[in-house]
Amino acid sequence: MLSRLPTGVCATALPDVNARTNSITALDRLLPALIRNDIREIVTEGNRVCVVYDFMTNTDAGAVRCVELLTVDDSKILKIELILDRVTFAPVNKALSERAAQRR
Q1: What is the mean pLDDT of each run of 10 residues along the chain (104 residues)?
Q2: Residue of 38, 95, 36 lying closest to 61 (CA atoms)
Q3: Is the model's pTM score more than 0.90?
């Protein structure tokens, strides 16, 4: 499914044992730009959960629509697939890079 995404849409899957560490590292990197996440919709089917939310930032990007597909088993998240438009998300990365450079 992820291979059929339109041009400009980025998908990241974290299916391995380091997924939790990778997710926490990514969140730590993004926290300086994050104001909040506004949940738009949650859909479940079997052991799959789809969360659609606006990643609200303090950057020129403003709100970035994101979709996370989670695979769950026995109340544990086994896999996270993050889908977002990397063009829309680019100002977030730019702002974070500029802020990091200013701290050096």
Answers
A1: 51 56 81 96 96 97 95 88 90 94 87
A2: 95
A3: no
